[in-house]
Amino acid sequence: MVSKKYSAVLALYLPIAIFAFQTPHRGFIGSLYGRRLRAALTGKVSDLQGITNEDLQWWHSLSRNNTIDCSCGKFTETNVTDRWTDEGITSLNEYSWSVSLVSPGQSYAFCGGSLVNDRYVLTAASCVDGSIADGVEVLIGTWPRAHFLTPMVEPDELNLKMLIRKKVHRVILHPQYSKDHLDNNIALLRLYGPVPTYGNSDGVSPVCLPKPLQNFDSMNATSLVWRFHTDEEIIVPVKRTEVSSVVLSKEGCKSFNYSKEWERMPDTMICAKTDVPESSHPFFDSYDCPGDAGSALVVDGNGVKVQIGIDSWTPCYGRPKGIGVYTRVAEFIPWIELHISQDGRNCAY
């Protein structure tokens, strides 16, 4: 009898393998579809030779077979944009694809993530390495204040009313991820059932994904981080803040010469620099930014937000010198598209 784990694997890869073996090309491994399947399984586009525009279109088409009338990357605001006027504080559902990863029944975000269609969340593998699906839940949507109530946070009924909590059905780590290095720090979470307000004009929408191998050097980017409040040695996240940064080239990032791991800077990573002062964050001397790892680094793409990075190894507010390191999403598009195309609904545009 085949276990549920292997049944899922067969259901995912067998149709693609059968389709590829049926192609008339000489030798599957060296064929057009063999090349595409290898890229989808490993997710690292730059490892392969002879990538063509047709290959890129084929990977992208995988997740466009089941679409609905909605747009990805909508940068929406509601009528309550003036509820909090603190500098940089995000408005309600301004980043509607943003999610928080929490323990079951809890509301303290141990990591972040982003909705890429109505059933899948993109995050860092380091956030869920060793986790089982039953040990992770997802809170969907972006709120200016924390998802939970503390003595330092006033009750916010609107937060609670709009909160969407989803259980995780499957944790999908990249097959080449290792906690010993920065490479391939990417994972997908398949949710139990679709997000209920997905695609609605006033509901949540997914973030847009970049094209494989797309270059973003020198572009302006933004990300969300938690601002914390300290009271009697208790530090809790209170507000989410938008932080602006500039994407660096690989050589520009390596020039900071921070560590041997930093100098290596694989092609699967991307760097961005911010000028946010470190003194404003209680964890500025730590590499453990509570709730921020796994979150999206986005750029503007013709009026919509495109996710180019996953917070992977980002020192809290400026060490060294305001540099954050992210998983380069464009490098893993084949792997992402293969998984999310199985049973998720995608926005048509």
TrEMBL record:
Species whose genome carries this gene: Allacma fusca
UniProt feature coiled coil, ranges: none
PANTHER family per UniProt: BCDNA.GH08420-RELATED (PTHR24258:SF140), SERINE PROTEASE-RELATED (PTHR24258)
Origin: domain of life: Eukaryota
GO molecular function: serine-type endopeptidase activity
Signal sequence residues: 1-20
Domain Peptidase S1, first and last residues per copy: 79-341
Protein name: Peptidase S1 domain-containing protein
